[in-house]
Design a protein that fits this description.
The complex is a heterodimer of chains A (96) and B (289). Chain A is an alpha+beta fold and 96 residues long. Chain A is built from 1 helix and 6 strands; from the N terminus they run E-E-H-E-E-E-E. In chain A, strand 4 and strand 5 form a beta hairpin. Chain A is globular, with a radius of gyration of 12 Å. Chain B has 13 helices and no strands. The longest helix of chain B has 32 residues. The chains are: A alpha+beta (96), B mainly alpha (289). Chains A and B meet through helix 1 of A and helix 2 and helix 13 of B.
Chain lengths: 96, 289
């Protein structure tokens, strides 16, 4: 899966040294909370779209809320997401 | 977060570098949101931290306001504040349920500050604050707490039902932290930690750089909003300018007397981090209505 080129897959920070394997890919996160957020986000997108995997996630924004686009097999799914203090999904809405 | 050695930025930077190295979420998130997302060496981070905590020529009160505005009223205002601009019934009821717990802790925190200070002007300030927020003055001037419960009732939430609703986890954690600060830390730190939070409804922050106010004041003229909701919002709108600014004046004065400015800064930052989470709990609760 293609994510941000630099740093943590959620926030692009280069602090920390936390790694998790997601979709068979070893990914860097600044902390365990960002890893939880990422996994929750991937699972939610798969649930909403019915996709088995995701090829790429593009993200802008910050911890107050992120605008994202997921790509898979030439298809796009755009959404807004915000996380709670433990990495759970606090708000999720599809963007048309 | 706290200072192990006063005014020793290299020591503080070393602490952060070590904690970030083991990916401690609290430290990493704090660095990301306040200092830099770019991993830095101890020497570079030391300079960045010194800059962040530098009071400049305008003093502690101005520094506190600047940090508060950045966090809650900057380019990305807090989601609860955004929701409160033109609040739904659910947003207001989320406010009622979580804030009753906040205010019950509030009076405890103010009481701890009073119990631990010898300064009469601080005692008098807290007495006045407790009366406004919790006690009220006779039947003509209900407390903020009473106005909150009346707002809930006007929206269909019986106060007995509200009393039976336990706080959400983020509210509970924040309350525990404020209780510990006011019981265990210096009373000047408690003063900054608690009354710095009243900046949230300080309408003067707009002229000091806040991107929006706590709510759009036009809603006080909206006929679709109940008089009880208006009474609650108006009370904070009118009281919290004085509450926050008077307290920050006392914090500025007594932090110099006791030589604990950097501890006050650290405790204030800790308090607003938990306040951020507490405000999110109001939104979480609102989804139940």
């Amino acid at each position: 899966m293609k994510v941000a080129e630099k740093g943590c897959a959620i926030c692009q920070a280069t602090w920390g040294d936390y790694w998790e394997e997601i979709q068979g890919q070893r990914m860097f996160f600044c902390c365990d909370i960002c890893a939880i957020e990422f996994k929750n986000m991937i699972n939610e997108v798969k649930k909403k779209t019915g996709w088995k995997k995701i090829d790429e996630i593009k993200m802008t924004g910050n911890y107050r809320g992120r605008e994202c686009t997921a790509l898979y097999d030439g298809k796009r799914y755009s959404f807004n997401i915000r996380f709670d203090s433990k990495g759970g999904i606090d708000a999720f809405s599809e963007r048309v | 977060m706290g200072f192990q050695k006063h005014d020793d930025w290299d020591d503080l930077a070393g602490h952060f570098v070590a904690e970030a190295g083991r990916s401690d979420a609290g430290h990493v998130m704090w660095l990301n949101r306040n200092i830099t997302k770019n991993k830095s060496d101890r020497k570079t981070l030391s300079k960045l931290l010194a800059g962040f905590f530098d009071l400049g020529s305008r003093g502690l009160e101005s520094w506190v306001k600047r940090r508060f505005i950045e966090k809650f009223y900057g380019q990305s205002p807090h989601p609860f504040v955004v929701a409160l601009q033109h609040p739904s019934r659910a947003t207001l009821l989320g406010y009622v349920v979580e804030h009753q717990h906040f205010l019950r802790q509030w009076v405890r925190s103010c009481s701890f500050i009073m119990a631990r200070t010898d300064e009469m002007e601080v005692v008098l300030y807290e007495l006045d604050n407790i009366n406004t927020e919790y006690g009220g003055v006779g039947t003509g001037q209900p407390s903020h707490y009473e106005l909150l419960l009346r707002m809930g009732e006007s929206l269909g939430l019986d106060r007995q039902k509200a009393f039976r609703m336990a706080p959400l986890e983020d509210t509970r954690e924040a309350i525990r932290v404020w209780d510990m600060i006011c019981q265990n830390d210096h009373w000047v730190e408690g003063l900054a930690a608690m009354h710095g939070l009243e900046l949230i409804a300080n309408r003067k922050l707009r002229s000091e750089g806040a991107s929006i106010g706590y709510f759009d004041p036009m809603i006080l003229k909206n006929e679709e909003i109940s008089k009880e909701v208006k009474a609650f919002l108006r009370e904070g709108y009118e009281a919290d300018v004085g509450h926050s600014e008077q307290a920050l004046g006392l914090v500025e004065k007594y932090s110099k007397v006791f030589g604990n400015v950097d501890d006050v800064q650290a405790t204030f930052l800790r308090s607003i981090d938990y306040f951020d989470r507490y405000l999110m709990a109001r939104l979480e609760r609102s989804r139940q209505f």
